[in-house]
Amino acid sequence: MQSRLMLNTFNKLKNKKNNSMTTYNKPVRSVVLGIGSYLPEKIVTNDDLAKIVDTSDEWIRERSGIHQRHIAADDEITSDLAIKAAKRAIKDAGIDGTKIDLIVLATSTPDNTFPATATKVQAALGITDGVAFDVQAVCSGFVFALNTADAMIRCGQANKALVIGAETFSRILDWKDRSTCVLFGDGAGAVVLGAQEGEGTNNDRGILAAKMRSDGKHYDKLYVDGGPSSTQTVGYLRMQGPEVFKHAVKNISSVVLETLDLVHMPISQVDWFVPHQANKRILDGAAKKLKLTRDQVVVTVDRHGNTSAASVPLALDEAVKDGRIKPNDVVLLEAMGGGFTWGAVLLRW
Fold it and tell me: What pLDDT, on the 0 to 100 scale, is given for residue 21?
């Protein structure tokens, strides 16, 4: 009797007119309502880098496939990039941004040690309800953030979510280290997710499956040599390139297949592969191992460089805006970053 009374009270509260939550009778899916991105105006080419470090356009292209990257202006910080991408995603979604009740921002280059950069985005958008927080999983950040937002939507803790990947990696690069400074760039990408009823099948729109992994024993293969509790400095990015490459193709392909297995979907049903844009050779190796054609792989690393947590939404936005990704297409996102962390998200556009 007491349990029934508590349930009735809960339902009455949930269905109040001023409550943003919606009751669903069928499985809830997190559907992409809108997408947007932002790249800083300043472009740095390989030839530009050759003037400040011992490298060349040919050397960089052969090893990474990168031709150029965008670098934030001196007065641009991570939240500035995130806010611009967020506003474009909200406009694309055609919704009132103040109705967003969850913001998850993936970044390894926050404005401050605290508070979360997501709260600055929340304030800039005029959102006073809900929750905003950061996720730190380096290059896997956006995939982890997307999975986190999806879980919160499916369990009823949010109705509309803004998921952002934003980075100013140029601020943590050692510009004398040619093995790392030539690889990275700055940028931001964002998606708006909305809760919608589905049928619980692979024909539903929205996120169908996701998988996240990490293995901390590889901590020192890709890291920043500074931090508040260790050196009290920001530090610089350090990477064992060959080791990262060795693990990348294997981890990417395995997590992709694990994600597809969750919903018993063969790789042949995937229309588009949107990977983290780390290195063209890694992208080609993963696509070959997964038996995907080059035309199915969205590639922006040549023009953006590695923008860490921003790379997947930046590439996704480009492929949507240029008409490659169309409604009902099956899209596979994946990323791998320091930690090591890696993961994948399968969705129907």
Answer: 57
